[in-house]
Amino acid sequence: MSFQRACALSELVADTPLRLDLDGTDVAVVRHGEEVFAIEDECSHAAVALSEGDVEDCTIECWLHGSRFDLRTGKPTGLPATTSVPVFAVRIDGDDVLIDPDTTLGDN
C-alpha cells in the first residue's frame, strides 16, 4: 500500500464529491457522515464524471443516465450500469485524507 495525501478533510463538504487526480487516475472523494470514500471518477456505463452527480444513502449517481454506485463497494445499485467502479482505500491522519490509488476494495 502506498497511501498519499489527496486533500484536507476540512476541504470536503458533506455529500459533495471532490474530483482529484491521483497518479493519473481521476478519483471522486466523498465525505458521507463520518466516513470518507474514494471512487474512480468515471461511470462504468458511460465515460461520465461521477463527481458531477449527487450523493445519497452512501451512493453516488451518474448525472447522465441515473446509474448509482455504492461508495463502499463500487457496485452499481441501479441500471443502466451493470459493472462495478473501482473504490480505493482511504485513511484519515489528522486533517489529511490519504488514499492508496494502487489498492482497490470490493469486487473490482
TrEMBL record:
Protein name: Rieske [2Fe-2S] domain-containing protein
Source organism of the structure: Nocardioides scoriae
Any one GO molecular function term: oxidoreductase activity, acting on paired donors, with incorporation or reduction of molecular oxygen
Key words of the record: 2Fe-2S, Iron, Iron-sulfur, Metal-binding
The Rieske domain, residue ranges: 4-99
InterPro entries named in the record: Rieske_2Fe-2S, Rieske_2Fe-2S_sf
Keyword check for Metal-binding: yes
Transmembrane regions: none
Keyword match Coiled coil: no
Pfam families: Rieske
